[in-house]
Amino acid sequence: MTCNLRHIKAKTALRVIGFIIIIGGICSCSRDMTFSLPETEPLLAVQSLIGPDKDSEVRVAMARGIQHPHIQMDIECKVDMFEDGVFYKRLILDTPVIASGTMTNKGYLVYPAESSLALTEGREYSVEVNYPGFETVTARDIKPNAVKINSISWRFFTGEMPEWYYNTPQKRYQNTFDDNWQTNRDTALIEYVINFDDPPEIGDFYQIGINYLVPDNYSIPRDTIHYRIQYAIVSDPDPPYVIFNYRKNKSQASGTGNTKNGNSMIIYQTTWELLWKDDEFDGSRHSITIIAPRPDEGAKCIISLYSLSENYYRYMIDRWRYCKLLQDPFSEPIRFHSNTSNGCGIFAMYSVDKDTLQF
């Protein structure tokens, strides 16, 4: 018995020694791999999505290779806007933000487009960015005509959202902090049917937004709380969606993404809204059916039908694909749609028609 135990111990020791030798041999054969990244010249980047429901602005940044150090933006940059090829106005740099240091730390310059609400549907607008040492960067887009909502019908019911709804980034984030999220799937819902006439013979691109205005019984200074909700469409198991940051009134202090502006508070509500185009119903009356959480009694519901330019739609589709593939290390890189010359980025527009329901 003693001999057998010694024999087993000896064999085990030899195996361990052999394993150590093999690992040592492998490690001794390894070496650091070196590679060089291709040299790339920095590009001026334009980021601008202009419409009545956003703080419209033109952002100018510097796109650079990952091997290049941070580039400090020169505030001598000039941004001009044109309407149908005729000079419209020069955009003014947001100097208060520059002075506070928040702008330069982020590495971009902001030019508010304060006149965006006055831009005319059907006309072409363009921007020219002149930056020291770079060619003039240009980008253009046509402000689409708003498609009018003909009618809206609705009904209350109890049920569940489609499965994909719970896997959007917003819901995944909420689920992380809510242990009871699964039990909340069977809940009070509302179904909206929105009817509109799609213009014929041209490609049209859409997005839907839903806002609830709920009476605030807990705060005397404010009579409503205004928030944007996420909703679902049943007809598509994997619909493309867009991240939409909605700007609330300054006097309302509920929401996410708060930033100070003097003594007032600017509130931004982030939601995920659906994108689609008129491939299957071009030139005809169309209905879209969506479901959403049931509003509180006394609430107002504002439904916004957004008409997007093709540039806006294509850029947002690429962002959606990027979000879907973000966790896949083997996915092909996404090349974002760009409509700029001598640079990169996006300059795109949208229009909107709204209708309000009172519950």
Largest sheet: 10 strands, mixed
Arithmetic mean of pLDDT? 79
Strand content range: 35-45%
Total of DSSP H or I helical runs spanning 4+ residues: 5
What's the order of the H and E elements?
Answer: HEEEEHHEEEEHEEEEEEEEEHEE
* Poorly predicted segments: 1-6, 250-266
Q: Which geometry do the CA atoms define?
A: globular
Q: Looking at the chains present, what oligomeric state does this protein adopt?
A: single chain
Structural class: alpha+beta
Number of domains: 2
Radius of gyration: 27 Å
The total beta strand count reads 19
| Cα end-to-end separation | 87 Å
Q: What proportion of the residues is helical, as a percent range?
A: 10-25%
Q: Can you offer a commentary on this structure?
A:
The chain is α+β, with helices and mostly antiparallel strands. It folds into two domains: 43-142, Immunoglobulin-like (Sandwich); 149-335 and 351-358, no CATH class. Helix content is 18%, strand content 41%. It contains five helices and 19 strands. The protein has helices at residues 2-29, 95-100, 102-106, 169-176, 310-325; strands at 43-50, 57-63, 78-83, 86-91, 108-112, 124-130, 137-142, 149-159, 187-197, 205-215, 224-228, 232-233, 241-247, 256-261, 264-277, 285-293, 300-308, 340-341, 344-358. The strands form three sheets. Strands 1, 2, 5, 10, 11, 13, 14, 15, 17 and 19 form a ten-stranded mixed β-sheet that branches. A five-stranded antiparallel β-sheet has the order 4-3-6-7-18, with no helix packed on it. Strand 1 and strand 2 form a beta hairpin. The radius of gyration is 27 Å and the shape is globular. The N and C termini lie far apart (87 Å). The model is unreliable at 1-6 and 250-266 (pLDDT under 50).
